[in-house]
Automatic annotation (TrEMBL):
Biased composition (Low complexity): 123-133, 147-158
Annotated GO biological process: translation
InterPro entries, A to Z: Ribosomal_bL17, Ribosomal_bL17_sf
Origin: domain of life: Bacteria
Translocase is among the record's keywords: no
Taxon lineage: Bacteria, Bacillati, Actinomycetota, Actinomycetes, Streptosporangiales
Assigned protein family: Belongs to the bacterial ribosomal protein bL17 family.
Natural source organism: Nocardiopsis ansamitocini
Biased composition (Basic and acidic residues): 134-146
One Gene Ontology term, aspect cellular component: cytosolic large ribosomal subunit
Bias type Acidic residues, positions: 159-169
Keywords: Ribonucleoprotein, Ribosomal protein
Subunit and interaction comment: Part of the 50S ribosomal subunit. Contacts protein L32.
Coiled-coil regions listed in the entry: none
Protein name (database record): Large ribosomal subunit protein bL17
Amino acid sequence: MPTPTKGPRLGGGPAHERLMLASLATSLFQHGRIKTTEAKAKRLRPYAEKLISLGKRGDLHARRQVMTKILDKGVVHELFTEIGPRYENRSGGYTRITKVGPRKGDNAPMAVIELVEALAAPAATTAPAPAQETKAEDTKAEEKSAEAASEETAAPAEGDAEAAESTEK
C-alpha cells in the first residue's frame, strides 16, 4: 500500500483525490496529452506510469487491478492493446511534464503532461536506410547526367570554335 501524501490533498479529501487522479489518467490515456496544473501533473505521473506498467504485463490480474482505478472499459482496452505494447522495451519514464506558464484567470502554474513516444523498433530503423541510399543514388545519377549534359554542350562549342578558327585561316 503506498504511503499517503503529507500535506494538503488535491481537492477536498482522499476519495476526491483518487477520483480526480483516475479521471486525469483516463483523459491522458484517451488523448495522449492533457493540460493541467503543475501540482496535478506531478501527482498524476507516478499514478499513470504504474498503470502503464500493469498494461505492459497484460495478464488478467493486471487488467482487473487497472479496472479498479479506471472505470472506462474502452480506455482500459486501449491501455492494454495499444499503450502497453508500445512501451514493452522501455523500463520506465512513459510520461513527460512540460511547464507552459501561468493560467490566465488565477495565475496557477500550468503544465502539459503527455505520453512519451516509444523507441522505434529495429525494423523501422532499417526501413529509412534504403530510402537514403536511393537518394544518394539519385544525386549520383543527377551528377552523371549533369556531366553528360556539360560534355554535350562543351563538344559543339569546341567544334564551333574549330570551325571558326578554320574559317578565319
